[in-house]
Design brief:
By secondary structure, this protein is of the alpha+beta class. The chain is built from 4 helices and 9 strands. Helix 1 runs antiparallel to helix 2 and helix 2 runs antiparallel to helix 4. Pfam families: Rogdi_lz.
């Protein structure tokens, strides 16, 4: 978009490069920021999703190939545990974390850039479904003697203009919000694979249920 342009490089769970140009709303000045060469930003959502997948794999590999399941209930119990991990993994990619504005302002992400971000600009990166999202907040400081009704904003994935917060005895208001996003093809594939995996687990449970009913059937 006109206000925010740039390039982000995502490798696995890590943003390895970021080069951002921000056009300041009031002055029209263009600010340029990039990641420090010694820094990478790990996306917690992808880390968590990977960890849940690893837990599902551990469950599936906890028995060797010669193991014989004794009951349908035993299979269902395993499938329930695997499906729980797969669902949690998918949810981490579909549900970005809600944060307060002070949490964003004091995040380690704000220390990633050179030159350093000015005090009236904040950024946030997150995953939403198959998209990598960048949100840029422009702020202005509320005068100490302002008569404006100050009401701190709670947690949110995306804060709107007019949202207020207090940090280090200063009060701020969000004046402009810019959100840009880009589809990441391998994230799209990942979400499809989660859906297929969950469907396969459910199909196995359904078959177990049908056969269990047959085994439990006793004619008069």
């Amino acid at each position: 978009m006109d206000q925010v342009k740039g390039v982000l490089t995502l490798q696995g769970e890590a943003l390895t490069q970021a080069d951002i140009n921000l056009k300041v709303a009031k002055s029209g000045q263009v600010l340029h920021f990039q990641f420090r060469e010694d820094k990478q930003w790990k996306l917690q959502q992808i880390q968590d999703a990977r960890n849940h997948v690893n837990q599902a794999l551990l469950l599936l590999n906890s028995r060797d190939e010669t193991y014989q399941f004794k009951t349908g209930a035993e299979v269902n119990k395993l499938m329930d545990a695997v499906m729980l991990q797969l669902t949690r993994a998918r949810n981490r990619l579909t549900t970005p974390a809600s944060l307060t504005l002070p949490e964003l302002a004091t995040s380690g992400l704000m220390k990633m850039f050179t030159p350093p971000m000015p005090g009236d600009v904040m950024v946030n990166f997150y995953i939403n479904l198959s998209k990598l999202c960048l949100t840029v907040y422009q702020l202005h400081v509320l005068p100490p003697n302002t008569t404006k009704n100050f009401k701190p904003t709670g947690t949110s994935v995306l804060h709107n203009p007019g949202a207020m917060f207090e940090l280090n005895n200063n009060r701020f208001e969000v004046s402009h919000v810019h959100k840009v996003e880009c589809v990441v093809p391998w994230l799209s594939d990942t979400l499809v694979f989660f859906t297929i995996s969950l469907q396969l687990c459910q199909q196995l449970k359904d078959k177990i249920s049908v056969f269990s009913s047959f085994w439990n059937y006793r004619p008069f």
